């Protein structure tokens, strides 16, 4: 039953709110990147301590994401998202203004936690939109997140380049995030699950499979983000200043692949998108390993991004068709497992690179991506 004064999930206002929400979630996440040098300059600390502080973001996400399904079930999507946006705004403000290491740690924890809840809640709303419309929108929704990540980093970078103080620029970005979410709040669903739900349920077999496959895709993203620049500059003779082009190629193709993905997903179905995506992503990584030309290596990272682009959206979407768990709890569990890959990826690559080589680490990543072909056989549509 749809609560009073709530548009049905199939309505244009709900789809618009979901697109804007995913965009602003990516926007809010990427605002942190341009702030990092200013935070380091403002608060004196060692590189080791700063690395430990950055763990607070991931710890916050992994701590709060398992609670997201319960919160949505008991309160509805709208209050959960608006409350999380308010916390995100406070966290960003603290990160931009504080001179205290302790406050920065708490702010980073809340930053990761609020974004984790927002991510799960919008995925739940996205699945409900697909369920009620009978159409595939998840690739487009995730594409909006990717586009928001690009725009957020560029927006704050532009503001700082124009001479705005970091605090002023950040407060401006916070204002945009809050206003955008308030503007579309009538399209955020308030439907609650029967009996309010539980905090966390052990994932069933199908949900665990989805989470494990998401883990591989997110692990690849984390590995490319943190290690592609080093690999390109050390083994492909790319200038250090251009090292970021590897992840830029990956992210660009992820974004394009998601915006162009709806007809592809509708034509191929879930299983083929996962299987073909895994093969293409693995081929991209192999290309970066075998070529001596950094230009072809960039193409390889782009192909990896294109292969990964629609895998996680169709996996999350598939959870609406399983019967083992309530959808909100299934999405919460699978997303939490998947997100662990973002944190584990860089660490795993680092350990392998330390004991063997970075080339071997990326080769093993390619093998894992090929493993998506084995998992895709469990999906029938």
Automatic annotation (TrEMBL):
Gene3D superfamilies with a match to the protein in the record: MFS general substrate transporter like domains
Highest rank taxon of the organism: Bacteria
Protein name: MFS transporter
Topology of this chain in the membrane: Multi-pass membrane protein
GO cellular component annotations of the record: membrane
UniProt subcellular location: Membrane
Source species of the chain: Stutzerimonas marianensis
One GO molecular-function entry: transmembrane transporter activity
TM segment ranges: 20-43, 49-67, 79-97, 103-124, 145-165, 171-189, 209-232, 244-261, 273-290, 296-319, 331-352, 358-376
Record's keyword terms, sorted: Membrane, Transmembrane, Transmembrane helix
Pfam families: MFS_1
